[in-house]
Design a protein that fits this description.
Helix content: 40-55%
CATH superfamily of the largest domain: Vaccinia Virus protein VP39
CATH class of the largest domain: Alpha Beta
Number of strands: 16
Oligomer: single chain
Largest sheet: 10 strands, mixed
Order of helices and strands: EHEEEHEHEHEHEHHHHEEEHEHEHEHHEE
Number of domains: 2
Number of helices: 14
Length: 426
């Protein structure tokens, strides 16, 4: 079972949107702006080409669940974010840059697609329809192959695209399709929602329902031969246990090198949705992680504050005291969580570096561990600044200079342990 589909029809009342869904849109807006800024840093760059695909676009407009005021949906969040990013670039760059962005909005419901087209025209974007804005009254999976080819044609070397796949539940985007996008478009990034609570709420052994759903998603071996009844009877927090197993298989099957396992919180305190960002670059993963820290009101990371050596969503019955294990394990990206992350990293980074006689570059350190931590690169650097101060670590630039502060650390700098160390106190 999935969440109820929204419905739009010209002349009818527009649907209500809940606050935790608005959170997804806020993260999308913030990430798009950060993404554009990050990839347009070169001062001589004249054109930046990008394709943005909204695979489940909806009608583009909602009413807020509380005050019933009009609230923009993902198509207009995307359009407005690019406009904001372009304004920022023109204010801060000496040399102007053109953002050449194609927008592909896919909506399978005919009435909703018509509603979206009318709203696009009403909001003064109508002149872009057929030029840079393409509204497809189709299903996402039926259009994926042609979109992949259009991205290759627009950016043959960079294969640069952002896919927003805000599916209605958990099975509208099979893993095989995600894998295909990542395989054929190495420069693409995917922001995918997965209604894991919906899956767990309705999962059962009746008529092989659970196995049928897992087969449909593309992770048939998640339960490792166990029944739902057995898991519910023998695991203290069976929901967290299944989430852990599902997550490991899911991200492995997607084929992305870098990913984020963060949850959008509902008003009830559980993680209603996974918000998974998939990419082939550590830099992209870090930009998304930083957005989570900046927008901490709605997000939880289940796991430790530092680097989880085995599994960020690893289930351990010792963590569960019979209360709400998920809520207690929540890492909420606030100031307390930040301090915990720095303290945890301060213990872990020296142990990671010490076995390597020559150390490793900061870029290597971050890229090989970032998938298993809620920490951003800036928190790694802040931790290293503490360790440098207490002579627990050295960070050396390519020209042999010792770094002293977080702001001066670069990816190419070598991180290593000094010959003599002093244990820091925090």
């Amino acid at each position: 079972m999935t969440r109820k589909h929204y419905g739009w029809e010209i002349g009818k009342e527009i649907p209500i949107i809940q606050q935790h869904s608005i959170a997804k849109h806020e993260i999308l807006r913030a990430y798009l702006i950060a993404y554009i800024k990050k990839l347009t840093l070169h001062p001589s760059q004249e054109v930046f080409k990008l394709t943005i695909v909204d695979g489940f676009s909806g009608g583009g407009v909602y009413r807020h669940e509380v005050d019933k005021k009009e609230t923009l949906g993902s198509p207009f969040v995307i359009l407005e974010a690019i406009k904001e990013a372009e304004f920022h670039l023109q204010q801060t760059r000496v040399k102007p840059i053109k953002l050449d962005v194609d927008y592909i909005f896919i909506e399978k419901d005919k009435k909703t697609a018509s509603f979206l087209e009318l709203e696009i025209k009403r909001r003064n974007y109508g002149g872009l329809i057929g030029e840079n804005i393409f509204i497809l009254n189709k299903t996402f999976d039926s259009q994926a192959d042609s979109i992949i080819e259009s991205v290759k044609k627009k950016t043959p070397q960079a294969t640069r695209a952002l896919f927003l796949l805000d599916q209605y539940g958990y099975s509208d985007v099979p893993i095989g399709l995600v894998y295909k996008i990542i395989k054929h478009l190495p420069g693409a990034e995917i922001i995918l929602t997965f209604a894991v609570d919906a899956l767990l709420t309705y999962v059962s052994d009746k008529g092989n329902a659970a196995q049928n759903q897992l087969n449909k998603i593309g992770v048939p071996e998640v339960l490792k031969g166990r029944t739902i009844e057995d898991i519910k009877s023998n695991e203290k927090d069976w929901r967290l246990y299944i989430q852990s197993c599902l997550y490991k298989d899911y991200v492995a099957a997607c084929g992305a090198r870098y990913y984020t396992p963060f949850f959008i919180r509902s008003n009830q305190g559980h993680g209603d949705y996974w918000l998974i960002h998939l990419s082939q670059r550590a830099r992209a993963r870090d930009v998304m992680a930083q957005v989570h820290w900046d927008k901490n009101n709605y997000f939880i990371h289940y796991g430790g504050a530092g680097i989880e050596m085995f599994d960020m969503l690893g289930y351990d019955p010792e963590w569960d005291d019979g209360l709400s294990g998920q809520t207690q394990l929540g890492h909420c990206f606030d100031e307390i969580a930040k301090n915990k992350s720095i303290s945890a990293l301060a213990e872990q980074l020296p142990r990671l570096i010490h076995p390597a006689p020559g150390g490793m570059t900061f870029g290597e350190l971050f890229s090989t561990t970032c998938n298993t931590t809620p920490a951003s690169a800036s928190l790694y650097k802040e931790t290293l600044e503490h360790l440098i101060k207490y002579k627990e670590m050295d960070v050396i630039s390519q020209d042999g200079k010792k770094r002293r502060s977080a702001s001066t650390i670069h990816d190419s700098d070598q991180v290593l342990t000094p010959k003599q160390t002093i244990i820091p106190f925090f």
